[in-house]
Amino acid sequence: MAEKSKEPRAPFALSKVAMTYADEDGSSGSGDDAIMLDGHKRHAGVPSSSGASRKRGRKAAGGAIVDAMLEIAAASKMRASAIMKSEDRFSVSKCIKLLDETQGVDDRIYFLALDLFEDHPNAREVFISLKDEKRLPWLQGKCGVSSAQIV
């Protein structure tokens, strides 16, 4: 015969006490008396005086929260889309295309420019935004090479 455990039990063990909580409309769903959160009993089917208005208020507040969350999600998607478009406009591949089209770029400047474009998105934006004749002098300045050193 198995002996029962003699461990002390908590005075409100959940396995011994089944509690039912009433909805806002006053029903517990089971037809039995409901034990409210404040510990008082309320008979099923007896609505509280402010139950209906409280339920409507919660639904309205819940709807407002859902609407706000949807607006936040939409704004986040728009921001992510704008960032992606910006990154596409100033991509490394576009910089390389313009670098290849620029006259007078020697190998040293070319490879230093690739490192610059890879590590600095702002440098890509500046390079692409510059007029054609300004790109090489700007790159030379960024790479620490003067036009006198290029032979």
Keywords, separated by commas or semicolons:
mainly alpha; 3 domains
Helix-strand blueprint:
Layout: E1 34-35, E2 41-42, H1 51-89, H2 92-101, H3 107-119, H4 121-129, H5 132-143
Antiparallel strand pairs: 1-2
What does this molecule look like?
The chain is mainly α and 151 residues long. The protein has 3 domains: 19-48, no CATH class; 50-84; 90-143, no CATH class. Helix content is 55%, strand content 3%. The protein contains 5 helices and 2 strands, in the order E-E-H-H-H-H-H. It has helices at residues 51-89, 92-101, 107-119, 121-129, 132-143; strands spanning 34-35, 41-42. A two-stranded antiparallel ribbon has the order 1-2. Strand 1 and strand 2 (41-42) form a beta hairpin. It is rod-shaped and about 75 Å long. Mean pLDDT is 73; it is low at 12-31.
